[in-house]
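Cell division protein FtsB
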Amino acid sequence: MRILIGGLVALLLLFQIQLWTGKGGLPAVWQLQDAASEQRAENEQLEQRNRALEADVDDLKDGLGAIEERARDELGMIRDDEVFYQVSDE
């Protein structure tokens, strides 16, 4: 009976060592969980960027307001009836 109990304890210790240090053990699981959480965060950022791009595309398709805004911001264009003032920070 003692031999059976000793064998079971040894087997239990072997499994514990395998669980804590072996390939596919707890450290590997923790590493995979960290990688999955990092990937989820990156996916969320990319989804936000995609939503912003979709909103830009919708604005450009629907009206001239977005086109006019881009012309003003990116190209510095003004309308014929407007006066352009440039303010410097000096």
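thats it. Residues 16 and 22 are 9 Å apart (CA to CA). The radius of gyration is 32 Å. bye
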